[in-house]
Amino acid sequence: MTSQQPTRAGFIGVGVMARVHIADMLRGGDTEVVAVCEPAPAAYAAAAQLFDQHGLPVPPNEPDWVNWVATYASQLDAVVIITPHVLHFAQATACLEAGLDVLLEKPMVMTADEAGALIRTRDRTGRLLVVAFQGSLSPQVREAARRIQSGELGPILNISAVAWQDWAPLTEGTWRQQPEQSGGGFLFDTGAHMLNTVADLAGEDFAEVAAWLENDGRPVDIRAVVMGRLASGALVTMNACGAAIPSCHSEIRVFTSKAIIRTGIWGEMLELQRAGSVRLRKVASIKPLPVWDQFLNVRAGREVNPSPPEVGLRMARLWDAIRESASRGGAVVSLPTADERSAFRAAALRS
Q1: Residue 143 to residues 35, 52, 293, 321, Cα–Cα distance (Å)
Q2: Quick check: 221 and 122 in contact, CB under 8 A?
Q3: Are residues 251 and 262 in contact, defined by beta-carbon separation less than 8 angstroms?
Q4: 291-299 and 16-28 helices, crossing angle to 10°
Q5: What is the Cα–Cα distance from 61 to 45, expressed in whole angstroms?
Q6: Do residues 22 and 52 touch, judged by C-beta distance below 8 A?
Q7: How many helices (H) and strands (E) does the chain have?
Q8: 113-153, pLDDT tens digit by residue?
C-alpha cells in the first residue's frame, strides 16, 4: 500500500539483514531512506550499491550513532535499528526520545530491566516500537496464538521447540561470538527467535526455568537446553544446537488438551491436528508481508502491533532466568509472579 507522502526512514546499522529491509523499501517506493549510520566502510559500500541499482542517490553516512541521532532525527519519521545486541537499549531509547518511531531488530534488549525501561520510554514518548521478530510478525504465529489464547483448543499441556544451524563456524570471528557485544551465543542470536515465539505462543510468563549452556570451547554458548514450567503449569522444553551440519531449521509443537499445533520459530508454517484426526493438516493463512510493510501498516493504524515490546519483555525475563540457571549448573530458578512484581515496584516507589 503506497502513501502519498513517503515515510522518511533512517538506518542505524546497514549489515546483511538491514540491506534486506532496504531492498524491500526501494522496491516498494513508499519510503525514502534519508540517512544511515554505519561504522564499517564495507557495509556502507554494499548498501550504497542497492541505491545505485535503483538509480537513487546514496544516503549520507554518519558513523557515530549519537551524532547521527542528533543530526538527522529531525529529518526522519522512523528508524530501523540493526546493530550488535548490547547497543539496542541505548539506541532505541535515544531514538524514541528524539520523537522517532522505531523498528528494532531482535533480541529487543539484554535484560528484563532494560525491557521494562524501554516500555516506559515508549509510553512516555507516545512513539511506536515494533520488535522485528519474524515469528511474532508471522500470520501463522498470530493465528496459532489466537487459537491457543481463545481457549478453543483447550489449555496448553506441553510445548516442545528445537532450533538448529551450523551457527558456530558461520559466525566465527564476528561480533556475534564476542559476549561483550552479543550478550550470548546461539541461543540469544538465532535461538532468540525460538525463545520469543515460544513466549508469544504461550501468552504467559514462566514460573520456573532450568537451563544448560555449552560453549564447546568458544567464548559464547553454542548448544543449549532449557526446561520450564509456565505459570499455568504447562511444561516447556527448548533445544538449541548451533553446531549442526550445514542447515538452519526449527520446529515448535504445542500440545493442548484438544489439539496439536506445529509451527516454526519464524512462523514458516502452521499445521493443526484436532482430537479425532489422524494427522496434522495445514492451516490456511494470509501471505506474509515484508517486515517493513508490516511496520508501515502498524504505523498507519491499519493493524495492531503484532510484535510489541511487551512480548520482548516476556522473552527478556526468560533469558534472565536462563542465564541465572546456567550459571548455577542448571539449578531451577523461580520467577516472580505478576503480583510479586507489582509489589516490588510499589515498594521501590515508596523507598
Answers
A1: 36, 39, 19, 28
A2: no
A3: yes
A4: 60
A5: 10
A6: no
A7: 13, 14
A8: 999 999 999 999 999 999 999 999 999 999 999 999 999 99
